[in-house]
Amino acid sequence: MSKPATSALDKKPARSPERDAFYQRLLRSNATPLWEVLSELVPALPKPRCVPHLWAYDEMRPLLLESGELITAQEAERRVLILENPGMAGSSHITPSLYAGLQLVLPGESAATHRHAPAALRFVIESQGGYTAVDGERTTMYPGDFIVTPSMTYHDHGNPGEGPVTWMDVLDLHLVNFLDAGFAEHHPQETQPLTRRDGDASARYGANMFPVDYKSGRRATPVFSYPYTRSREILEHMHKNSPLDACHGIKMRFVNPATGGPPLPAIATFIQLLPRGFKGAAHRFSDSTIFCAVEGAGHTRIGDTTLRWKQHDIFMAPSWMPVSHESTGDAVLFSASDRPLQQFLGIWREQAPLPA
Ligand code: 1HN
């Protein structure tokens, strides 16, 4: 009988007292046999430690508000509840590469200006007049807005409005720390001076025109904010004027208008409409993904787990597990993953739809 064309690298050689004694001696020379660890180092398929999980906003919001009674934004630097994947408890991971948290800024509060090597995105959940300032420009936050803070840009937040301001933060800090390339510092002023007026970046770079002398010095998008009013309008337009994708419904990718690539070098972001009664086909992808329900309700099957979500819930799907979405009413999902990094490395994979 001939061997199959491919076979997994998961066979381990037998152990013996002589071999074990040799392995022990190797350790003293800071060496170890590859054949004992090969299958873990080079798995035949992804073996995610992360598990599918959902954080219900109904459960998280009271906890977030409770944190607001215990600590000020000022004392905390950032008042955030980290969303920890139960499969990677204690490590501040929501996916193998990404960190996510829920941040609260109460009326009258501000969070001091700082900058750091990790890039961040905010996905706004509640805001009546909250703002984030990036590189000398303030952006007012509205629910559903997607806002970026590129690596090493000074940023601060504030809430001069009425109710609490909350959003989801996603940062690529684990990638930065893995590379031992983390740097961070405060701005000399708690609130950075404003050098451009609200809307400047969007006027300069977000209108299908660029200043003629624009030089792209960095890979991150020069547009800080992707307002939900616009993305929702586009989803509606696409829904009326193009067929639904069997897996994704109507799904759009946010872009850096200077490159056509992702808004941040290592993080891709998407927004998708699952029209009322949508029953999506199963598919899988190698980028573990964070989802946030912007509108509506539905459920997502991830492997053997069914996660029921409604507006403002956050959930994650680990690498390569079959995913299928269903919506009850019209629903909108925002999502984020390390896809650009995997694509840069040439390792990103997708099967969409999965063969039945
Ligand atoms: C950070 O700077 C923010 O600026 C939020 O709002 C979360 C988590 C880790 C490190 C820096 C922010 C963060 C963070």
Write the layout of secondary structure elements.
Elements: H1 17-28, H2 38-41, E1 53-55, H3 57-70, H4 73-76, E2 80-82, E3 99-105, E4 110-116, E5 120-126, E6 131-134, E7 137-140, E8 146-149, E9 155-158, E10 165-171, H5 173-178, E11 184-186, H6 200-205, E12 225-226, H7 228-241, E13 250-253, E14 268-274, E15 284-285, E16 289-295, E17 297-302, E18 305-310, E19 314-317, E20 323-327, E21 331-337, H8 339-345, E22 350-351
Antiparallel strand pairs: 1-19, 2-3, 3-10, 4-9, 4-11, 5-8, 5-10, 6-7, 6-9, 8-12, 13-14, 14-21, 15-22, 16-19, 16-21, 17-18, 17-20
What key phrases describe this protein's structure?
19% helix; 356 residues; globular; 6-stranded antiparallel β-sheet; 8 helices; Jelly Rolls; alpha+beta; 29% strand
Helix content: 10-25%
Q: How would you characterize the largest beta sheet?
A: 6 strands, antiparallel
Work out the radius of gyration. Answer: 23 Å
CATH superfamily: Jelly Rolls
By secondary-structure content and strand pairing, the structural class works out as alpha+beta
Give the count of structural domains: 1
Q: Overall mean pLDDT score?
A: 96
E-strand count: 22
Q: What is the CATH class designation?
A: Mainly Beta
| Number of helices in the DSSP assignment | 8
In CATH terms, what is the fold-level topology? Answer: Jelly Rolls
End-to-end separation in angstroms reads 30 Å
User: Which compounds are bound in this model?
Assistant: 1-hydroxynaphthalene-2-carboxylic acid
